[in-house]
Design a protein that fits this description.
The complex is a heterodimer of chains A (125) and B (111). Chain A has 125 residues and is mostly beta strands. In chain A, 0% of the residues lie in helices and 49% in strands. With 111 residues, chain B is an all-beta fold. In chain B, strands 1, 3, 4, 7, 8 and 9 form a six-stranded mixed sheet that branches. Chain B is globular and about 40 Å long. The chains are: A mainly beta (125), B mainly beta (111).
């Protein structure tokens, strides 16, 4: 059974930093691109960032480019999102999500077939 | 303002058929990028409902079907059941933004 479990959320002041983690199990982690998708309170889904299975290619939404950094440790089956210079508009539940298809070298638009339960990030003074 | 446009809400009685539209542009759906659909219940993570426009993951009943034409896609639900309530999101890729994009979501109410 595929499982994804996020952690690291919490209350942080504007301008602060936070690192989210996502522990994966139940599949060959290194073979699949992973993504972060967020959902502000009462709002829709927003793709934040994606990383290829081999960890080389990384992609970001314009709203977080230059502030967030996605990474992964395939030896530990872990996905990370380092969030810097946080703003109030970054307040959201952050989900990690696995690509449906094998995506070792890129991030393909094939759908996100497994999601974690989410971790809440609140940016407020 | 979402790149993909969905109706904010749809409703139907049990047993009826409803459709949810997802309208994009030549920069995303119209460029033949696949559309995927997700279902989300309150307080829970989204669940993949349809991928590659027309394909159902295992476990998704055949009451759900997807289609795509031109710059739009649709999700149809027949034999509506109470458990189908929730929010539905379409998702694709936009070549101008070079991002994955979601629709704004549609809230389905079973009357």
């Amino acid at each position: 059974e595929i499982q994804l479990m996020e952690s690291g959320g919490g209350l942080i002041q504007p301008g602060g930093s936070l690192r989210l983690s996502c522990e994966a199990s139940g599949f060959t982690f290194k073979n699949y691109a992973m993504n972060w998708v967020r959902q502000a309170p009462g709002k829709g889904l927003e793709w934040v960032s994606g990383i290829a299975g081999n960890g080389v290619s990384k992609y970001y939404a314009d709203s977080v480019k230059g502030r967030f950094n996605i990474s992964r440790d395939n030896s530990k089956n872990m996905l990370y999102l380092q969030m810097n210079t946080l703003r109030a508009e970054d307040t959201a539940v952050y989900y990690c999500a696995k690509a449906l298809c094998i995506t070792i070298f890129g991030v393909s638009n094939c759908g996100l077939d497994s999601w974690g339960q989410g971790t809440l990030v609140t940016v407020s003074s | 303002q979402s790149v993909l446009t969905q109706p904010p809400s749809v409703s139907g009685a049990p047993g009826q058929r409803v459709t949810i539209s997802c309208t994009g542009s030549s920069s995303n759906i119209g460029t033949d990028y696949d559309v995927h659909w997700y279902h989300q219940l309150p307080g829970t993570a989204p669940k993949l409902l349809m991928y590659g426009n027309i394909n159902r993951p295992s476990g998704v009943p055949d009451r759900f079907s997807g289609s795509k034409s031109g710059t739009s896609a649709s999700l149809a639900i027949t034999g509506l059941q109470a458990e189908d309530e929730g929010d539905y999101y379409c998702q694709s890729y936009d070549k101008s933004l070079r991002d994955f994009v979601f629709g704004g979501g549609t809230k389905l109410t079973v009357l």
